Amino acid sequence: MGSGQKTWGTPHHVLIFPFPFQGHITPMLKLAEVLSLSGIRVTFLNTHHNHRRLLSSPGVGARLASRPGLRLRSIPDGLPEDNPRGLTEATEIIAAFDATAPPLYRDLLSSGGADHDGAPPVTCVVADGLLRFAVDVAEEMGVPIFAFRTCSSSSFWAFHCIPKLIETGVMPFQDGCDLDEPVACVLGTESFLRRRDLPSFCRTKDSDDPNIRFLMDLTENSTRYRGVVFNSAEFAESIVLSHIRGKVRSTYPIGPLHGLLQAVEHSTGAVGDGGGDGIPSSDSTSLWQEDRACMEWLDARPTASVVYVSFGSVVPLGKEQLLELWHGLVNSGYHFLWVVRPDMIVDGGVPAVVAAGREERGFLAEWAPQQEVLGHPAVGCFLTHSGWNSTLEGMWAGVPMVCWPFVSDQLITSRFVSEVWRIGVDIKDTCDRAVVEKAVREVMAGERSAQMRAAAASISKTARESVEVGGSAFKNLERLIRDIIKSINSSTP
Ligand code: UDX
What we know:
Blueprint: E1 13-17, H1 22-37, E2 41-47, H2 48-55, H3 60-66, E3 70-75, H4 90-111, E4 124-128, H5 132-141, E5 145-149, H6 153-160, H7 162-167, H8 210-221, E6 228-230, H9 234-244, E7 251-253, H10 257-268, H11 293-299, E8 306-310, H12 319-332, E9 335-339, H13 352-361, E10 362-365, H14 370-375, E11 379-384, H15 388-397, E12 401-403, H16 410-420, E13 424-426, H17 433-445, H18 449-467, H19 472-487
Parallel strand pairs: 1-2, 1-4, 2-3, 4-5, 5-6, 6-7, 8-9, 8-11, 9-10, 11-12, 12-13
This protein binds uridine-5'-diphosphate-xylopyranose.
Uridine-5'-diphosphate-xylopyranose binds next to helix 1, helix 14 and helix 15.
Keywords: Glycosyltransferase, Transferase
EC number: 2.4.1.-
Protein name: Glycosyltransferase
């Protein structure tokens, strides 16, 4: 691939199979596009529900159809159409998918799927690590399989350390335990990790918590794959990647994948289109319709004057939290562009005060072209839930952050933002209006603002270098492609 040589015409055919959430589809679809541009035939397997949503965005179907050797397939997720499919339904989604998907996936591996369109057989799978059945079926069929983990490597590593956290008494959390107590057994993070920074599932008081059992299953599974692909980068997470390398067969940190896709597009001469009126941003993978009016609103704002607020695709917000956030933003005195998904507010719609007051200082969008927004010169701060994709996108754009993490890996990622990369402020567990106001002011123009801005610019530069030919992500991609091709010659995992 580095030499530009295509493997077209060869029998390599990779099936890419994400967990059915936006935060998983986005990086795995980008990997599918990267592999297809690199000469590998790819089938991307979505659920019917998400497939329809993805293709309903103008321009997305045409872009994906233009990727050589990329075909899209979908299967049912086992849920009724009116199921909201949000974070609160995660257990239900996993159970329904575990019950519905395995025979259809097995069929795709054995015969190319129900439509038998003449594609050569699948020779290798890259499956989301959350899909436990994917590795069982691939092993049964003798098809080599790699895992893709969409979380940061540091949270993957913290999940890996759960047995140690239990052994050393950090978990389960006891009533009144000190959340600021340092945690020593997540090697590589000893100097800055506190109990409160562990992924939210670790906050359980029940030693037999089903979420913890699920995570431990995933950890045990991770040795069954040919390797684990991370949407992460050596420069950002080397302190944990070195420990992970001792536990799994191979690691492939190839992030930020949206940057790698751009680099591969340029190196192969396939440059994306779109970005005009009503057209989604060039490499959009959005399941929601992007509101492009916010770009015009940004155009009218001075450089680094706007706070962009987004909590990703699944985080729910209570009305109280929403009001604290609203008042904090208004009191900070800055203009803000705020994504409020239609399904985001759990106990009612947008409160009257927000609806009435937004014209003055803010722009509310149901869904924004986030990568473009972050790249807009008017954006001076990213108030984020510290989802891993959002964090990488913020890093790539060089925008300092205020981190209000909610669940799972977001709690450890926000600590890395504030203490390791020093590109933002972490307000976990303390997010009232006064804290929001103070943190926004700190990032926008406080004492440490210039330092954070310089660190963010520097990490953005490093990220861009890492995806170019010869950079660490690019080299890891080349190694992944070599290993995928090699795996076809050996069916013994
Ligand atoms: C979740 C987790 O938070 C994440 O850490 C995990 O690894 C994957 O699943 P999510 O909570 O949705 O994902 O957040 P994030 O990982 O940040 O992904 C959200 C994606 O939606 C980002 O790529 C972001 O650019 C996109 N987005 C969000 C938009 O395109 N427009 C919006 O308005 C909001």
